[in-house]
Design brief:
By secondary structure, the protein is mainly β. It has one domain (about 25-130): Protein of unknown function DUF192 (Jelly Rolls). The protein is built from one helix and seven strands; from the N terminus they run E-E-H-E-E-E-E-E. It has one helix at about 40-45; strands at about 25-30, 30-40, 60-70, 80-90, 90-100, 120-125, 140. It has a seven-stranded mixed β-sheet.
């Protein structure tokens, strides 16, 4: 299924529960620490947090693009409201709140753009990154 132009790979073919991602890292920004599953392959980035019905507080997913991008994210087949923090050079580029997109037409879903180039995006439960501002330092480390 084609994705809207400029949208990060987020819609996996088929339905069902996502596969577990073994590797995790700790993401720290301000007074928040998120244990994030690493999505660094095309398949992992496409699947993301789709179909999940629950996400523990302070847990999420980090999307590692291996270089700069300006692609947006959308919430097709993502059931939970999420906060997304875009990061480049260890600093916050932007933060957005994303809401689930119902229906079977991915082109009807809003696209959440970063407002600048980024290398990593971190998704966590809604409002996790409330109060985080552009330029805040972000530490990404192994668990």
């Amino acid at each position: 299924m084609p994705e809207p132009p400029g949208v990060a790979a987020r819609n996996a073919a088929g339905a069902g529960a996502p596969e577990a991602v073994a590797e995790t890292v700790t993401v720290r920004v301000r007074d928040r620490t998120v244990t994030a599953e690493v999505a660094d392959s095309d398949d992992e980035r496409r699947r993301g947090l789709m179909y999940r019905t629950w996400l523990p507080p302070d847990h999420g997913m980090i999307f590692d693009f291996g270089g700069e991008t300006t692609s947006g994210f959308y919430m097709f087949r993502t059931l939970l409201p999420l906060s997304i923090m875009f990061v480049r050079d260890g600093r916050v580029v932007s933060v957005r709140e994303m809401t689930p997109c119902s229906g079977d037409d991915p082109s009807a879903c809003p696209v959440y753009y970063p407002g600048g180039a980024y290398t990593h995006a971190v998704e966590a439960p809604a409002h996790t990154f409330a109060g985080v501002t552009i330029g805040d330092p972000v530490a990404i480390g192994s668990d």
